[in-house]
From TrEMBL:
Residues 19-176 form the Flavin reductase like domain. InterPro entries: Flavin_Rdtase-like_dom (IPR002563), Split_barrel_FMN-bd (IPR012349). This is Flavin reductase (DIM6/NTAB) family NADH-FMN oxidoreductase RutF. Its cofactor is FMN. Belongs to the flavoredoxin family. It comes from Desmospora profundinema. Keywords: Flavoprotein, FMN. It holds the Pfam family Flavin_Reduct. SUPFAM superfamilies: FMN-binding split barrel. It comes from the Bacteria.
Length: 214
């Protein structure tokens, strides 16, 4: 089957994208609003951008009319945010923060999360999360839509401080099993890591030897 994205709706293209690009890690992002309210929202369009310096990106779709979401607007104004990892212990409460609360209502406190002071940025961290990435804004890129009403904002932030719960950290690595990360699939479906396997990359000589190409 061939599908021309220009011949179908934005919603139909969205369904194909989230059904194709998966599983997607979820960034649970905290920011500060103009009146000091702590905004907290999950985003599954999220990935690593750079390792030197460490950088991550989140994509915030805009509201109808090209209106920025609270998270994007807050980051544009303050230049700071924190990304928390979603895991099996906190995913249900994080899902509650996706409720369309008004800007003056802090989602984190509304759903019962406890806040922790960050080390390098002003937005707080979430105590119930095991990994936090404190970020400073590097760049915001309006994407898609039209010049006056973009479809989304791609937000790139530099990680200026990592927080990892002590029992997860061993010799520079994070224990995936103890972290128990949760990813987003299509629709309202989530998934965990499940079965894992190791498959090392071969050098060219190793590949030739293994596959009889020498």
């Amino acid at each position: 089957m061939q599908i021309d994205p220009s011949q179908q709706s934005k919603t139909d293209n969205y369904k194909l994208l989230i059904g194709s690009v998966l599983p997607r890690p979820i960034a649970f992002v905290t920011t500060l609003g103009p009146e000091g309210a702590v905004n907290a929202a999950p985003f599954s369009f999220y990935t690593v951008v750079s390792t030197d310096p460490p950088m991550v990106s989140i994509t915030c779709s805009r509201k109808p009319g090209g209106v920025q979401k609270d998270t994007a607007r807050n980051i544009a104004q303050t230049g700071e945010f924190v990304v928390q990892v979603v895991d099996g212990d906190n995913v249900e409460r994080i899902n509650q923060t996706a409720t369309d609360f008004p800007p003056e209502i802090g989602e984190a406190k509304a759903v019962g999360f406890q806040l922790l002071e960050s080390a390098r940025v002003k937005p707080p961290r979430i105590a119930q999360c095991k990994v936090h990435l404190e970020c400073r804004l590097h760049e915001i890129l309006p994407m898609g839509g039209t010049e006056t009403a973009p479809n989304a904002d791609v937000i790139i932030g530099e990680v200026v401080c990592f927080h990892v719960r002590d029992d997860l950290y061993h010799e520079g690595r994070i224990d995936t099993g103890k972290l128990d990360p949760v990813g987003r699939l299509a629709g309202t479906v989530y998934g965990k890591v499940g079965e894992t396997f190791s498959m090392p990359r071969l050098t060219l000589d190793e590949w030739k030897q293994k596959h009889g190409k020498g």
